[in-house]
Specification:
By secondary structure, the chain is of the alpha/beta class. The protein is built from nine helices and ten strands.
């Protein structure tokens, strides 16, 4: 099994084989919590405009996402696990658009299979990949705003790679250290309304969920994220 670690939208475009688009803070953590909060369907899309158009197809969908980390005007929720776990999403269609993660998904056109990646389901992702026994795996760390290296995304890629290689490494110290680097923004009082500390803690709960989110391209180029227990 060849495992390649890539970054940003360009990395998503280059990805081949089973491709994992990684966005720990916070897109694909949010998507996991949306399903855990009862969502019937999660759909990822590129832009707020596409999200609004998509929402017209469903009965009272939930629009969630961010630009510049903040909730988009006219949306129900931001890209915040803290907001999501406070909502009853039972039976709802959850439509998500973010600066980095969802754009990575729609640009991974060379993937033979498409998964999301985050710390909360990293081991489930590796179990799914192992079950498929692929020749090629691409781990794409989307980074901060899809343009700057993000410690949490690169760490998640390292963890998934380690699981795939059968290594028994202790990643807790590195996870805990995220609060001193890329996670510092969650502890800035100026960000409390849109990036609260609880988002940091909810995003760093390693292997909280035993499911993967597998992407399936829709005819409208948006991506259905299907929950599969693993």
């Amino acid at each position: 099994m060849k495992i390649e670690v890539l970054e940003f939208v360009e990395g998503a475009k280059k990805a081949r084989g089973i491709t994992v688009i990684i966005d720990v803070f916070r897109a694909f953590t949010s998507a996991c919590y949306a399903y855990d909060s009862g969502a019937a369907r999660v759909i990822a899309t590129e832009t707020p405009e596409k999200a609004f158009r998509l929402s017209e197809q469903f009965h009272y969908p939930i629009l969630a996402g961010e630009r510049n980390e903040r909730k988009i005007e006219g949306f129900d929720l931001g890209n915040s696990p803290t907001e999501i776990i406070k909502c009853d999403l039972k039976g709802k269609t959850f439509i998500l658009t973010t600066t980095a993660g969802t754009n990575g998904l729609v640009n991974a056109t060379g993937a033979t299979a498409l998964l999301t990646g985050s710390l909360v389901n990293a081991e489930a992702v590796s179990r799914y990949i192992k079950s498929q026994n692929p020749e090629q795996v691409s781990l794409v760390a989307m980074g901060y705003r899809a343009s700057l290296h993000a410690d949490e995304d690169l760490l998640c890629a390292q963890i998934i790679k380690s699981y795939l290689e059968g290594k028994n490494e202790d990643f807790e110290p590195a996870i805990n250290d995220l609060k001193n680097n890329s996670g510092k923004r969650f502890f800035d009082p100026a960000n409390i309304d849109f990036s609260p500390p609880t988002d940091y803690f909810l995003s760093t709960m390693l292997n909280k969920f035993n499911f993967v989110l597998k992407g399936k391209k829709r005819e409208d180029r948006n991506i259905d994220l299907m929950k599969l227990e693993y």
